[in-house]
Amino acid sequence: xxxxxxxxxxxxxxxxxxxxxxxxxxxxxxxxxxxxxxxxxxxxxxxxxxxxxxxxxxxxxxxxxxxxxxxxxxxxxxxxxxxxxxxxxxxxxxxxxxxxxxxxxxxxxxxxxxxxxxxxxxxxxxxxxxxxxxxx
Length: 136
What we know:
alpha/beta; 5 strands
């Protein structure tokens, strides 16, 4: 299974949430994210560390060592206009992830319901955990 991960699931993995189990599952071959989404992970990691009373250095280290490839915008920029048309009015912050998913033809992994109407295969962490447990 190959997935395009949104910032929200990556942040969950950083603090040891269920998303971490998806990232570590042997059936998950590859996980990528847009550079903009990874910047969002780094930005919110600081707030998350404060909120959860976690060591900031450890949280930033966990974010930096996620088994996720960061894809520069240049590689999927041809899909940005299409992604904007599909989701830009609902949630402009999701355009980059959708564009990457459209470009690669991979499902999007997010807990954001805006992808439901985006015309792309989309999974929440709970759905992926169900699928992966059946795959074993």
